[in-house]
């Protein structure tokens, strides 16, 4: 199919129309329009692109289709439509869904951009629209949104700097894959990739730059969280791939591995459901970042497969957590329990999602996580730590998997199985149920029918000519590995359950840098103000002194010599003496 | 028309005698005689001005002698300008003095003699004759300063007398040295004779030094200005305006004559010290005069120090000594006379209406004396050098000349002078318009009223207001014609410099 319009256009139109059409009709139109993007991007030919669109007077490609964009577009549009459905049935206001859809639209714009300028333009727009989405909820979300905006402002600026550096080096914003683009892909020059890695690192939640994630995502409306958990971080993974398209980056790969462990560990300490899930975004994105960092075709395919699957099960997790909050009003696992009996559908959907994210055989996470781990084993360096047949990065990713199991066992145990819940709780309502079941079904579908997943990946992982190591999902070793991780998770949870329950809130890096930036800013402001005041005082004092000296020079000279005043006005005699003196000096000077 | 030249001196002398004699018969006839005389004087000066501007100079030898023995009167564009300025300003001050006084016949007798001295200085071509007129000017000015009431005027007059006489004596000494060196007193003849004697001769150098320092005293260049603030502040308002507008102006004109007509540009080129002395006097005067002006609390003293600073500019132009700078000097001489005279009259007017004499008393003046306040402000702004007023044109030419000559220190000081001028005028204008009056007292008694007339008169006459307003209008209007005048003056200046 020939391209008609960039995919973000119907979504942004839906976002603009939604508040005008009323709650029910608006959501219906928006859902249909967003869902229509799924077949559209599926059918548009790969390689199609719009050339004659100049952004800010530079040559840009606002719509460029390649396998990476297609995959991103498919899942973005699909989960966007599900999100609209879920929003409507979770009593989200039309204006909030409109913000959410503008956020979806800017994400679609970013992943279908054929050049750096379009990418960074929509990238910044995402930061704005997602901030609006957070702010709309009000209350605590406002300050969190502010922190979120500042961090993404910094990240976006770093990325923008990288893009400008690239333009200065090559004279073009275009991607290498676009006709007329430069010969080598990625960002040119030695500095631009570093800047970009840091800037994108904010979006994907590099350790140290990740604190916005668990800070922001638990706070807004439950439906807003569903949108938020999808787009920013996954567009970040996509951006990271664009920065390191060919050979990846070793440091980025290890950062991904560390993120997987760190995120899962921190998640284990959480009691707030959505905060726990937010740490898992970091952990899961760690797998994707590791895949992009490894840089082989296998690993990149795995990374994007994981993007695709992650969006499904993470969206599902946030939806189930949202339903629990929607029905009980409770955010904390400590106040929940025994909900499985009263909310069987939600508990079922949660179980599917949890098994998917943990990578249990038969669920989609098992497939894609397997590809990344396989990539880390076969196509990456061994690294400093080798235990038996397991290499460093692989070990990190596996440990992350154990942590994931443990934390989701914790989530499920405390929310749905442990104890009894007092009082009546209804299960998910009809619309929510449709959303939950649809996504849960897809999680299972892609877990069992791994070929369907492989068919949309940018590289065919079953073809030895394309990848270094042909990937087969269901091998005995792999299944044993998956089950072993689950068992390790169960045993681990049983061991740490007691100490975990006594643990208070575990501080993250933002405990350090929030006060640091707050007091730093305050010190700066106070310092500048005081400096200004001191300068002002000094100037006023000098001016006053000058004024006094000018207004009463006789007193000023008197002060200098220690008398009350020194008469300076010349009398008659001194006037004559002056005249004669000057005459004498001039004449003497002239004659001699 | 060359016969008109001696009239410029003869007329006021004659008028003065008539006023003296008529005064014996009738009281209060002096003003009428003076007006009549000065109207004719203005007409004569105007005619001469029209004749010489842009054409050859008029030369007239007094008493049928021949040059260089006889006394020669030379009217060129520059001297005609000064002569006309003297006539117009003295006529204008009369309009103010009719009500403001002094009103005695003796005042007008001396007044006309002063006009004769000033006119003589402007048109004489003989250096000793210039000294004579300088002394006439000086003596009459001393007398006028002393004519005010109270000891302050007397002390000021005495100080002016003593310091001024020393200056005049130095001038005379300089003439003596020049005469010894050359044996001639005619300016044109001196120029050639001095060149023959040689510019390195100690006699010539001493003559230059003494003449210049003598005139510095009369111009009131810092630090030889000590007589001037006391004299301006102590004299009656009419007299302050008159002498501040003309006496220093004519002395500055004399400096231009001495430096360029008598000694000439070649002398300046051969004697770097000469230019240095002039430039040093200029710079010191501009800066210190302005600073002293800022420190004054009494308006008239402030204006006096302002003159010290402004004449620094003129001396600076003489030091630069090119066509543009001297054109600027001529324009600024005229402009400054109008502006400074107008300012003194405005201050007098304000004093008569409100009794305010100090800077602080000027707070909220705009309400109490709107005409005086407005005129003062316009003149002050013109003096600062805001276009299109004449104060701008003069300074602009002088600065341009200094730039052309590459005299950068002087350029910096000239531009700084604008800022310094702003410094002392801005605070007054600010008080006039942007502060509320601190006192509510109304009219002050007229200090200079003769008191012979019992009928209550309004303190301020229409003539007084008209004169002040006219000065402000002329100060702005002259700016428009100043450039054209500069072009007409160019041949004269070029002749002066050749």
From TrEMBL, chain A:
The chain crosses the membrane at residues 32-56, 68-89, 116-137, 149-168, 188-209, 221-244, 250-269, 285-305, 311-329, 350-373, 393-413, 434-459, 479-496, 568-591. Residues 114-375 form the NADH:quinone oxidoreductase/Mrp antiporter transmembrane domain. Its main location: membrane. GO terms for molecular function: oxidoreductase activity. It comes from the Archaea. InterPro entries: ComplexI-like_HydComp, ND/Mrp_TM. It is found in: Cell membrane. Pfam families: Proton_antipo_M. One of its GO terms (cellular component) is plasma membrane. It is a multi-pass membrane protein. Keywords: Cell membrane, Membrane, Oxidoreductase, Transmembrane, Transmembrane helix. Coiled coil: none annotated. The keyword Glycosyltransferase does not apply. This is Na(+)/H(+) antiporter subunit D. It comes from Halosegnis rubeus.
UniProtKB/TrEMBL annotation, chain B:
Residues 125-421 form the NADH:quinone oxidoreductase/Mrp antiporter transmembrane domain. This is Monovalent cation/H+ antiporter subunit D family protein. Its main location: membrane. It comes from the Archaea. Coiled coil: none annotated. InterPro entries: CPA3_Na-H_Antiporter_D, NADH_UbQ_OxRdtase, ND/Mrp_TM. It is a multi-pass membrane protein. It comes from Halosegnis rubeus. One of its GO terms (biological process) is ATP synthesis coupled electron transport. The keyword Membrane applies. Keywords: Cell membrane, Membrane, Transmembrane, Transmembrane helix. It is found in: Cell membrane. It holds the Pfam family Proton_antipo_M. The keyword Transmembrane applies. One of its GO terms (molecular function) is NADH dehydrogenase (ubiquinone) activity. GO terms for cellular component: plasma membrane. The chain crosses the membrane at residues 29-50, 80-97, 106-124, 130-148, 160-182, 202-227, 239-260, 272-295, 302-324, 330-350, 371-394, 406-426, 466-486.
